[in-house]
Write a structure and sequence with these properties.
Strand content: 15-25%
Strand order of the largest sheet: 2-3-4-5-1-6
Largest sheet: 6 strands, antiparallel
Number of strands: 6
Helix content: 25-40%
Distance between the termini: 61 Å
Amino acid sequence: CLFCVFVFCVFLLYFALHSSIMRLVAFLASAMGVGALIPQHNSTCGLEDTGVVDCENPDLGTCGNACCAVNITGIESESTTDVYDKLVAYLKSGGTDGSFDYVTGPDAHGHNPSDDLRQYNISWDFILQGTHTTYPGYYVDTLDFAIYHDADENKNQHSNAKTFSLRAFNLAGVHGALGDHGQSYKSIAYLAKDAFGHGVELHKIFGCGIVEQQ
């Protein structure tokens, strides 16, 4: 029908204009020296081996789906509360490339446990959850974090500052994700360095392609 053709043409025109505008914005930002203000989606590995940093640990079905568990050590901070606050703020902000998010609030049945575990006097002070979304593709993975109660045994040798550790876990969210092209480790590594600085250390403990690399 003519109306259907008209609607289709309007959509084509909209997407063409949108694409042109985005290219123009990127060009102007680059010309004005503010290209860094536009997210570059550097936390995504992609489906092709293009040599993206921290994508060299592809996992294959360790958790049924691809997954990765990492201990992040050497986080300079005054307390575990500061570590928690910084991590939550980072997730809420989306990170430098806008790919992360913080998960909270009740589920469909009203379950909404607290992130704060300090009242239980156990080895962990805080537990929290987030997500990472790849671009393009928009695959959403789940990120879980647990912040250790005790400070690291060794302080930063250069600043003598107190440091803490947390455990981070990434699970591929879409069903049937046997492999991840290194994305599970990449999401954790990108967040760790972006949120806490490049001085942190990452120690793979499960998944992350460990079996394949042995």
